[in-house]
């Protein structure tokens, strides 16, 4: 199955099971959440015309070449008097332009005489250095649409509109399972044949960054009865996310449990790393089974599961930004799967980590992102290749 087909199917499944509950949270608690309702401006921005400069406000028609007396000083945060005809007002950046003034000149182009009168040294124009009312936003305008992910910029924007609270989609609840008899948690001594569980930490941290509520279900041994029990005990979650136990030839306990109590699709994805992927339901709860090799987990989570989770929350734009960059490597052997190589940018070129094995997480720690090499393509040094920065996938 081509990667884009798998993604399209997962997104369709996500749209069929949207998180519908919403919460009203303070801006302080809204970081990383998804806006549940369109945000409409309740005021004009700016609310009144204001000065873009420190300088002098005047009525252009009053300036005939004779210096003007200063009739008031207007600081930001203070209400001005209407401008007296034949005078100018000292004004500071962000202060309201007084009624009757139609022009602000910056102080650098003004000369103050000993008697305090002001002469303007450059030609003046109506409206110069004035930020008009409603220039940024008009009351009633839609400023953000439902499905927008709220980061520092969006929260800042909501604050400019005086919004203290926002309606957001409730967090997605994800249960994380690591499967494998060989797994043991960091901090314990390694027994024979054991390896440390890295996927658990990788996924739990990543899910938290994505604003999910994580139920960490620990390590599940390769055993059907225990798998059944564990799945049944997970409780009320929106997604069960497991790793391991989906490789060809392995006793597939997760698959067996899903076959008994739900439905199951086993996908062979044209993706490398990360060919096998399970999608199913356990008692109505969607289940995604990612391959166990850490680099496979990373790639299939980042490219397929992340967009699925965002779409469940109604996020419209789930496609990570990618940039075309010159390849700093040769890829002579065309593949039958789309490869995502762990890569970084050095001197304007994309370099790839020497060991691209799916078991090697160090490759990703060295890297700054993924280079996509499409099926059948053989990019050479200097050819343009798409680069997806990890920063796009992690947040
Ligand atoms: P599996 O899909 O269960 O056959 O696992 C594929 C490979 O990934 C095997 O080498 C596993 O030992 C390894 N693996 C599976 N789960 C994890 C995990 N949570 N952390 C680190 N390695 C894992
Ligand atoms: Mg396993």
UniProtKB/TrEMBL annotation:
Residues 175-311 form the MoaB/Mog domain. Its EC number is 2.10.1.1. Gene3D superfamilies: MoaB/Mog-like domain, MoeA, C-terminal, domain IV, Molybdopterin biosynthesis moea protein, domain 2, Molybdopterin biosynthesis moea protein, domain 3. It catalyses: adenylyl-molybdopterin + molybdate = Mo-molybdopterin + AMP + H(+). Pathway: Cofactor biosynthesis; molybdopterin biosynthesis. Pfam families: MoCF_biosynth, MoeA_C, MoeA_N. Keywords: Magnesium, Metal-binding, Molybdenum, Molybdenum cofactor biosynthesis, Transferase. Its cofactor is Mg(2+). Catalyzes the insertion of molybdate into adenylated molybdopterin with the concomitant release of AMP. NCBIfam families: Glp_gephyrin, molyb_syn. This is Molybdopterin molybdenumtransferase. It comes from Pseudomonas kermanshahensis. The lineage of its organism: Bacteria, Pseudomonadati, Pseudomonadota, Gammaproteobacteria, Pseudomonadales.
């Amino acid at each position: 199955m081509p990667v884009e087909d798998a993604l399209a199917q997962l997104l369709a499944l996500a749209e069929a099971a949207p998180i519908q509950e919403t919460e009203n949270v303070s801006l302080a608690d809204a970081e990383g959440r998804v806006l549940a309702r369109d945000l409409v401006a309740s005021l004009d921005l700016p609310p009144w015309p204001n000065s873009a400069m420190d300088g002098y406000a005047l009525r252009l028609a009053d300036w005939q070449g004779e210096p003007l007396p200063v009739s008031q000083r207007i600081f930001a945060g203070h209400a001005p008097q209407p401008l007296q005809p034949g005078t100018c007002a000292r004004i500071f950046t962000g202060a309201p332009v007084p009624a009757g003034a139609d022009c602000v000149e910056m102080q650098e182009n003004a000369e103050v005489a000993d008697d305090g009168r002001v002469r303007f040294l450059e030609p003046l124009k109506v409206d110069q250095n004035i930020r008009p009312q409603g220039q940024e936003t008009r009351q009633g305008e839609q400023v953000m649409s439902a499905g927008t992910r709220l980061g520092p910029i969006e929260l800042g924007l909501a604050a400019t509109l005086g919004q203290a609270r926002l309606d957001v989609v409730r967090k997605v609840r994800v249960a994380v399972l690591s499967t494998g008899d060989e797994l043991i948690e960091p901090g314990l001594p390694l027994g024979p044949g054991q390896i440390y569980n890295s996927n658990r930490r990788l996924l739990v941290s990543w899910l938290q960054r994505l604003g999910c509520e994580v139920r960490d279900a620990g390590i599940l041994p390769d055993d059907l009865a225990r798998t059944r029990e564990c799945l049944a005990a997970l409780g009320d979650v929106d997604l069960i996310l497991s790793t391991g136990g989906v490789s060809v030839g392995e006793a597939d306990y997760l698959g067996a449990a899903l076959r008994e109590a739900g439905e199951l699709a086993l996908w062979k994805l044209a993706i490398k790393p990360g060919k096998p992927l399970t999608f199913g339901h356990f008692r109505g709860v969607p289940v995604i089974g990612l391959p166990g090799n850490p680099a496979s987990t990373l790639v299939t989570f980042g490219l397929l599961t992340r967009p699925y989770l965002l779409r469940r929350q109604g996020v419209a734009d789930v496609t990570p930004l990618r940039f075309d960059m010159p390849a700093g490597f040769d890829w002579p052997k065309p593949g039958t799967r789309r490869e995502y190589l762990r890569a970084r940018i050095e001197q304007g070129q994309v370099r790839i980590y020497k060991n691209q094995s799916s078991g090697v997480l160090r490759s990703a720690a060295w890297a700054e992102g993924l280079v996509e090499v499409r099926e059948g393509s053989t990019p050479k040094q200097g050819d343009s290749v798409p680069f997806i920065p990890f920063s796009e996938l992690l947040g």
